[in-house]
Model the fold of this input.
Amino acid sequence: MISSKITGTGSFIPSIKKENKDFLSTHFLNEDGSGFSSENDVIISKFKDITGIEERRYAKPEYKTSDMAFFAAEKAIKDANLNIEELDYIILAHNFGDIKPGTIQGDMLPSLATRVKYRLGIANPNCVAYDILFGCPGWIEGVIQAQAFIKAGIAKKCLVIGAETLSRVIDKYDRDSMIYSDGAGACIVEKTSEENSGIISHATQTFAKEEAYFLHFGKSFNKEEDESVRYIKMYGRKIYEFAITNVPAAMKTALDKSGLGIDDVKKIFIHQANEKMDEAIVKRFYRLFKKQVPEGIMPMSIHKLGNSSVATVPTLLDLVLKGNIENQEVKKGDVAILASVGAGMNINAIIYRF
Done:
């Protein structure tokens, strides 16, 4: 049976650190433009209690999304000891393209994947480069697509990247802006002949009724701002309720397809969106099997890196594989779930054996 596995990983964590205290002088507003009755220190304290975020990373002004994608890709290629001319596909997940500081227009022509191929210096025209817009689950969906190409016999080696500069599409008057960050993560997915190794099963769903616009572009909460400029907006409570209801079910679907049991799962790499939400998702997932959540099952990077959308899961995976998250490791033969939820509303999950 043809299967595929991740043979190399890499990530790029921007160097600009923005701590919670840096928002103390920010003028936060409600959606209707009114101010909050609470002081910023109270708002920030509640924010940290819910999300777990203490600080986040922003890209330097000279770096765009495709630059960070290239940096992460280089590391993944080196980790896999790969000849770049043997790549069949470059799949790059993002949501807003390249955005220069101080501008309002995303640049996606040519595609960011093409820009990465150009930077890597790949001459082979049969290396196909394209972008995927799938919300925060974009990188996982890219891995699923890479596996599909490999199983179909039209690819042997694929580069999958998730990169984003959310710091450039946030409304500074919106307290939700504290969630978002920048970063990039990448991996090499290759055909493998190893039995019981690599991608075992997966599940993907799109909910597009009332859920379709839970994440969207909207006007600034400051009514004096230019109304033609749009920023990332979300209905946080609705997303939370949607995620804790639907993500555990999708994870179970993927696990059921694999033929493995809940006790086989050793790690869950979940999109770093909100610590409390992630904890609730995993708790409900185990409740479906009438089990308690095992200690240490869910590595977290959100405390220091924030929510970098498509970059969170590949970055988290790379950090754990490289031994850069305390008390977290994976061993040969360990089974893990990679799962995400985001704009669409999209959900996906992969069952993977290392």
Summary: The mean pLDDT is 95. The radius of gyration is 20 Å. The helical segments are 40-51, 65-80, 112-120, 138-151, 236-258, 275-287, 302-305, 312-321.
